[in-house]
Write a structure and sequence with these properties.
alpha/beta; Alpha-D-Glucose-1,6-Bisphosphate, Chain A, domain 4; Rossmann fold; 507 residues; 6-stranded antiparallel β-sheet
Amino acid sequence: MILHPFSSMIELRNSEATIAQETNQTTPPLIAVTGATGYVGGRLVQSLLESGYCVRCIVREPRKLDLRPWVDDDRVSIAKCDLAEDDDLHEHLEGCNAAYYLIHSMEISGNEYAERDRMLATRFVESAQRAKIGRIIYLGGLGEMGDGLSEHLSSRREVERILSSSSIPCTVFRAAMIIGSGSASFEILRYLVERLPIMTTPKWVTTESQPISIADVLHWLVRCLKVPETEGRTLEIGGADIHRYCELMRIMAEELKLPRRIIIPLPVLTPRLSSGWISLVTPVSYRIARPLAEGLKNKVVVTDNSVQELMPHQAMGARESIRNSLERIRMNAVTTRWSVAGPVPGDPDWAGGTLFEDQRTIEINATPEQVFRAVCKVGGGHGWYAADLLWRIRGWMDTLVGGPGLRRGRRDPEKIEFGETLDFWRVIGIEQNRSLTLRAEMKLPGTANLEFVLTPKGESTDLQMTALFKPKGLLGLAYWYSVLPLHHFVFAGMLNGIRRAAEKPED
């Protein structure tokens, strides 16, 4: 058989078209995730990748993602964008099949978070419409309807309304308390039970709730992408069982192998007082504890089971969720934590005014890698290498005046990443095996940084530690001079402790 040249050309073109069509069909959809540095968003990215999607993380501070295991995945792109200030969000949303909106402003003091949430949601919708994305997916709060909603839950409802008011289909998930290692709600529950064998509590401990595991939240958030019927729907999600908060405390105590806790509800404890008590006993700050405590006064139970009709899934019960979360904590496998959320301040303006500096250097017979590893262990259960009693006293003092104290601890006993917290410090600069910069978040009459700089020196390493303090007024001056005599015990002891740890033979 003789093939005509023109016939061969047609077949070649048809073959190329078929290959191109198959390529287009196999190209994974691109999904945008705002709030990818947050508790839910940081885990959602991994779930989306495991389900075969490409992900564009839209974040205010990309450095917070430097150590995430998926950051170097070819299917991940990272866009730096502050929704409150930048006007290029629509450019980052272009080409995306769907976008998750996982932003909230609870870390803002007072009731300003509600106003800010409205502003951010409005700007997001405008950008999404301009980019012509296919769908918006939002995770809100579950709770009763009506006029008795807490301010926090009312704000979530307002964000729902704004996101659903555009021409873009919006899928809204409403969830109650999320149980997962590192979540704010879980940390509150765990620390209350661990630290208080007897506790007087507000009357909301008798309110019914339907807590849900973070694993189940992630399942439904991802699954809805392949279920078109979920577009334009509001779906309530919860775990397998319903409990009063006091019952969750009992379950937590049992899973922690602790004696039964004695709980005495008192109607006189208002959300303001109870959130202050929460911030005193647990790592969660007052600013975050208050909206969470206020939300507990509302009954949060699934009343519409549409999500099971559209996306059948056997969710975990509260005990299994708590057990799994505690196991991840024991294994040091907490991938995201509530304390990382929120803006990270840049370097302070040290120019002008008085600047105090305490600089010390020590030579360590170890490699920069070994020294840096020892430096990165500071805080949390490991302590600060020296004068731990002084650190604890300073933590107690800070807690009493509304600061974070030492309660926040750290996410992992050895690994740290940009933006996370170490007791009452926050990591604002990290360069692997070279430097670490911490910003003090304790209550201070001024601004304080603690810097570690490593310099290779033949077979040893010079470690320079610098404490910088910019005082505010006479009180700041008095503070510096009052703590200066303690620096020898605290900072010199810390350097010697780091040296011992770095020079210690590895197991």
